[in-house]
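Example with several molecule types.
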Amino acid sequence: FSAAGFDDAGSGPLYLQLQKRLAEAISSGRLAAGDSLPAERDMASMTGLSRVTVRKAVQALVANGQLVQRRGSGTFVAPKVERLEQALSLLTSFTEDMARRGKSVESVWLSRQIATPSPEEVMALGLGIGDRVARLERVRRSDDVPLAIERASLSTATLPDPALVETSLYAMLESRGLRPVRAVQRISAANLSGRDAELLGVPVGAAGLRIERIGYLPSGRVVEFTRSLYRGDAYDFTVELTLSP
Ligand code: 16G
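Resulting structure tokens for the full complex:
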């Protein structure tokens, strides 16, 4: 960054001039994915612009997804997201999907708790009066990129203690002979709200996919009711179609 080249006359608002320069530095690779930006006050003294102007430029780049802010640690160039192709016909877990691609899996837990079920959970899981529900809420990440927010609900008969799930829900269910063998999945479009967008590192209102999965045991009992929000810029879902007989 340098003070040179910012002018009050003619070239548009100062914050836009800085925004453009930062955007160029990102697209040319001078600022690479994951690089951290200097603190606002340092950028102000390097450029000779006011902190308000610097903040406005940075906020504009956060809003369009080129920069991400992590509370307490600063502002970074957003990671490059490669689109993943995901077959819709296979009943796999997030952990398995990433392992198959040779990618890492990280989960950030938002909450793990036993709670009173919502009417929606009562219906989906076929719960009775007084039953409680185990809820697992996490951001699923791979190679340091947040890909989805997942909110799984299970009956406490299936999962008496949510802390039993450390990394893979399906691995834990499998070890107890409770892995779903069939699932019904519903996909719909969603614009990501402020909090969800922040968790996924995308601009507010960005396109997402809401995916709801209800997983069943061979007996027909529901094991899992999971609502996820996937980043629209990270996934291509594919399915093979056949002629009906
Ligand atoms: C997938 C499933 C989710 C399941 C999770 C288990 C979709 C839309 N969702 O993300 O329903 O709970 O895998 O993953 O595919 P895990 O075994 O890695 O915890």
